[in-house]
Amino acid sequence: MGAVTSSTGRVVVVGSTNADLLVGVAAHPAPGETVLGHGMRVMSGGKGANQAVAAARLGADVAFVGAVGDDEFADAALAGLRSAGVDLTALVVVPGRRTGIAIVTVSDDGENSIVVVPGANAAVDEAVVGAHVDLVGGAATVVLQGEIPRAAIEAAARSARGRLVVNLAPVLDVDEDVLLRADPLVLNEHEARLVAGALDVPAEESEEVLVRGLLARGVRSVVLTLGPRGALVGLDDDVTEVSAPRVRAVDTTGAGDAFVGALAHGLARGDGLVDAARTAARVGAYAVRSPGAQASYPSAGDELPAV
């Protein structure tokens, strides 16, 4: 039984959407070095949009709160959201502003290097969230990330009455209450150590001790993602190791977002956090097997790699 199934309960993602300019390279350049790329594609991206698409393709009812500019990249940024059937009634088009852009280089071993120019994502502010407070408040699961301004993240967290999933990537300074209300707080190891420092939790400890420290500090639950090693799930007094399938990575772009979107999908349909993380690890592994972010995500019914 390796296929994914559809879900109930609405997921609302408040976050970023970008056009990804994807360039392949044999190896990433060192500082001052010029390398030749092989091919360039424009694809849909942005952490918020990626997570919305990942959840929607698995069968979740998803709405997206975000912004694009009125430029030539807007359609490319929105193509994946539209194709996945994400509700875009809360999308804002900002006149005179460029759509967010991510310049992504992918080396032949599948590792990526990304530079993000926020563009219209910087216009996703408290007023934008406030205009859709009923949408956010009525969601079964609300998903936030760090690619939009702090004020929007805090406003959405205050408005959420359902389960709040906070993926603070990249890490930025937000009100402590956002972190303590997250259920779960989803971080990779680097992000977790930065957040631990902000919460006065010892950051130079083992991964499990780090998770336990965040729980002891008052975070409701924690998912520490570990790439090909899977994840650690901290809930109550338990830390559970979640394994990931072993696959050949072609492109890791957006794999973490696939994990978060799948996690939100599982939580919205009523799965427990550990079970949702187990499925999410398999979705993340599925995503690294082909190029791009959203284009690599599975649909409901697709067979996921086994652990």
How does this model look, in words?
It is a single chain. The chain is of the alpha/beta class. It is built from ten helices and 13 strands. It has helices at residues 47-57, 74-84, 126-130, 133-137, 150-159, 176-181, 189-198, 207-217, 255-268, 273-287; strands spanning 10-14, 18-25, 37-45, 61-69, 91-94, 100-107, 112-117, 141-145, 163-167, 185-188, 221-225, 231-235, 238-242. Strands 5-4-1-8-9-10-11-12-13 form a nine-stranded mixed beta sheet, sandwiched between helices. Helix 1 (47-57) packs across helix 9, helix 7 (189-198) runs parallel beside helix 8 and helix 9 packs antiparallel against helix 10. 52% of the residues are buried.
Largest sheet: 9 strands, mixed
Distance between the termini: 12 Å
* Class from secondary-structure proportions: alpha/beta
Strand content: 25-35%
Helical stretch tally: 10
Low-confidence stretches are: none
Shape: globular
Spatial strand sequence of the major β-sheet: 5-4-1-8-9-10-11-12-13
Q: Please provide the ordered H/E string of secondary-structure elements.
A: EEEHEHEEEHHEHEHEHHEEEHH
Number of strands: 13
Oligomer: single chain
Radius of gyration computed on alpha carbons: 18 Å
Please estimate the helix content: 25-40%
Report the mean per-residue pLDDT as an integer: 93
